[in-house]
Write a structure and sequence with these properties.
The chain has 281 residues and is α+β, with helices and mostly antiparallel strands. It contains eleven helices and nine strands. The chain has a six-stranded mixed β-sheet. It has a three-stranded antiparallel β-sheet with strand order 5-4-9. β2 and β3 form a beta hairpin. α1 crosses α2, α1 runs parallel beside α4 and α4 (52-65) packs across α5. It starts with 11 loop residues before the first helix and ends in an 8-residue tail after the last helix.
């Protein structure tokens, strides 16, 4: 499911469903219509023991924010939280008791919030075309918790939709000196095994919305490398999560270094930048 925190929207499933809901909402669709559509189109999530709760929690949140939370969805979420069934799932997925305790507090506050009607529904936003923050091939560096420099590479700049996504892959760069273009060209892709990432490459589509205000000071542009492969947000070229939290780029490296004590699994970045006849993770 790709979890990065205990909040209701801090996992890939919730983030995606929430975004899908408000994309349709901002297009003028009615919340009840959107709810039916998402339920119909996401049976795989609803039938998943890992993602079921996340789907219903975030759907309830979106409906509550639009003053459309129906009794059936509310009661389902209420029963799940009060039975602590979601906490059981977290334990089964390997969460420690500190994380479980935080999740319990989050869920209790969430239930309290949606138990009262929202004073005013969330306003619909006019669709506007957003531009990606970085150009394709941009090499970014950032400071790690250990004081070293880390690195990430922009694999794509989405200019075909209104979202302005950047597809960014975290690398295993972890060095005292600021990385050069040569370091990036020889770097390896970070394989994430912390949380629920299950040994997948840390590749994520990032929204531009909050970058300049909240995250621009975290990164420095080094140079650009050639990325021959074309990636699209709705394409099948790669399995990637979606996020608005750019700090996850460096957080993922920090978490993986802590988990592996400096030894991280990886494969060459060129596997994702150079065109090949056959390649796979």
């Amino acid at each position: 499911m790709g979890t990065w925190g205990t909040a209701i929207k801090s996992n890939d499933t919730s983030s995606d469903i929430y975004a899908d809901f408000f994309d349709l909402y901002n297009e003028g669709k009615e919340p009840s219509e959107i709810s039916k559509k998402l339920i119909l189109e996401n049976k795989d999530l609803i039938n998943s023991s890992e993602d079921n709760n996340n789907f219903w929690f975030v759907l309830a949140l979106a409906l509550w924010e639009t003053k459309s939370l129906d009794p059936q969805t509310f009661q389902l979420v209420k029963a799940t939280i009060e039975s602590e069934q979601d906490l059981i799932v977290w334990r089964e997925l390997g969460a420690d008791e500190a994380e479980v305790k935080k999740r319990k507090i989050v869920l209790e506050k969430f239930l309290e919030k949606i138990s009262s009607e929202k004073p005013k529904e969330k306003a619909r936003k006019k669709n506007r075309i957003k531009e990606p923050i970085f150009e394709k091939g941009t090499c970014l560096t950032f400071k790690l918790e250990n004081g070293n420099y880390g690195g990430a590479v922009v694999l794509a700049a989405d200019k075909q939709t209104s979202f302005g996504y950047n597809l960014i892959v975290s690398t295993t760069i972890n060095q005292l000196r600021k990385p050069t273009i040569q370091d990036f060209e020889k770097s390896n892709v970070l394989i994430a095994s912390f949380g629920n990432w299950n040994n997948k490459p840390k590749v994520t589509w990032y929204l531009p919305d909050r970058f300049k205000k909240e995250y621009s000071n975290l990164f420095e542009v080094i140079d650009k490398i050639l990325v021959e492969i074309d990636y699209t947000p709705n394409g099948s070229e790669i399995q990637a999560s979606f996020s608005g939290g750019w700090h996850h780029i460096s957080d993922s490296v920090n978490k993986q270094l802590e988990k592996d004590k400096g030894e991280t699994k990886s494969f060459p970045l060129t596997e994702m930048t150079k065109k090949r006849k056959w390649w796979k993770f």
